Amino acid sequence: MALVCLVVIVGQLTSDAQVGAGTVVYGLSFTSAGLGVELARRGHTRLAMMAVIFAAAGASLADAMH
Length: 66
Hints:
- The chain is an all-alpha fold.
- The protein has one domain.
- The chain is 83% helix and 0% strand.
- The protein has helices spanning 2-14, 21-41, 45-65.
- Helix 1 (2-14) runs antiparallel to helix 2 (21-41) and helix 2 runs antiparallel to helix 3 (45-65).
- The radius of gyration is 12 Å and the shape is elongated.
- It starts with a helix and ends with a helix.
- 21% of the residues are buried.
């Protein structure tokens, strides 16, 4: 999830299109997915799953904003 968000952010920043709220939401989703990875690494798997679900929901929201 974090990799997908990162690829989309880089794609949006390198294109000629205006950076908007969708890019910000993708950034928040990227942060949430990264947090999920760190939580899972520390053994907090339930919280990690919640963070990944929030990241996926945020990425879906950002995609719908386009």
